[in-house]
Fold tRNA 2-thiocytidine biosynthesis protein TtcA.
Amino acid sequence: MSGIAGKGCEVLVPFNERIPLKDIERSIIKKYRKPIWNKFIKAIKEYNLVEDGDKIAVAVSGGKDSILMAKLFQELKKHGQINFEIEFISMNPGYHEDIRKLLIDNCDYLNIPIHLFDSDIFKVIDDIAKEYPCYMCARMRRGALYSKAQELGCNKLALGHHFNDVIETILLNVLYAGNFKTMLPKFKSTNFEGLELIRPLYYVEEEYIQKFIQNSGIWPLNCACMVAAGKIGNKRHEIKDLIKELKKNFKDVDKSIFMSSKNVNMEAILGWQKNKEKYSYLDFYDED
């Protein structure tokens, strides 16, 4: 399996054979209640990610994050007090047949009824962006998922980005793009009217997702990319390594990075952008 994915795509080896489904589901609200379930609920409540009447398309790539997210939504539906519908959507962008079979087998075992649809994204990316495929691939995947969600009559699309994705995005923008932007917990699509993207794992740390998956005995898909195979890892992998180094001397550096996007002091920055308009602090310097 690991030979199919690009460098930097970690393969999670299970700690044991697959445990019974009921034990996997129970572990979410028992063993992992504090680091996973409670933080999932916190994001939903704080940002109103799930509301009465919603029909949510939950994107299931087959990776560790999306598998957990799918099971969390099932538990929320089972135990929660919100009246909503869910559809599980999964896209095959051109996986090796063994990877496709693994995706289907995992979802069958976990009782995740996916709408699996095919696309030729890997082939297109290999033709137009083979040197740096990851960014373009992510954008095309999202567009395909939006289309499927719209086709199914959904008003929200849930993606499995987690706490670590958020802080890595902040540092990527600061260090490589020279700007300050974060990954938002929800936003309205500009290209698909009536659709909203939500990130329910916003507060869930990656290490606990890994532990949950490994304890379940499930072999999740890694990026499974036929295009990036053998290429040097992208900038996000470099940022992951940087954060690991920083945590050796300051264990809460990840939380500080995350909180920086909640504590922007508008009186102490040189400039900002809003609605595509750029502003300088000098524009308001002489105001009383």
Remarks:
- Residues 21-284 form a domain with the Rossmann fold fold (CATH 3.40.50.620).
- Residues 90 and 116 are 5 Å apart (CA to CA).
- Confidence is low (pLDDT under 50) at residues 1-8.
